[in-house]
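COURSE: Structural Biology Practicum
ASSIGNMENT: Worksheet 4, Part C
STUDENT ID: 0417
INSTRUCTIONS: Below are two proteins. For each, the amino acid sequence is given first, followed by its structure token string. Answer the questions at the end about the second protein only.

PROTEIN I
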Amino acid sequence: MADSEASDWEAEREAERRERRHLPMIGLGLSVLYVAGVALYLVIQGQNPADLALNELGDFVGGVSSPLAFLWLVLGFFQQSREIRLSSRALNLQAREMQRSVEEHRRVAEDG
């Protein structure tokens, strides 16, 4: 039974690992789309951020980068949540194995 639980856990872990690789790609894709959209908007409006005063340029960069920062914050949260879930499963599996080991040692000590 322990072997089947371990193999199930390993299969889940591999699936999580594959799924985890998708988050950075999703973030990268959304970031590229967002930056392209901002650039397209600027071209259509005929605006050049280089023409802005430094304080206005700082406001512009801060305003444009805030949604990207929030996107990556959320993606990081989801990735960390998955990592914590995997760690929790691993700890539960280890605790069960330790309990079985203790029970086996007790049985051996009582029989011996």
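PROTEIN II
(use this one for the questions)
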Amino acid sequence: MSIELMFNGINIALVAFSRYVVPKAIALDPVAAETEIAQALADQTPLAETV
């Protein structure tokens, strides 16, 4: 049970810090990223990788 609690703590920390990870496309060019996101939503395709 102790190991499960540690894994749960790690998962909570990863979810909390994932909010602060900025996708590479948005960090480089926010305007182009907005266009790419709109296109991906229209086509229902996955977005690029994150940093």
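ANSWER KEY EXCERPT:
Q1: The chain is about 70% helix and 0% strand.
Q2: The two ends are 33 Å apart (CA to CA).
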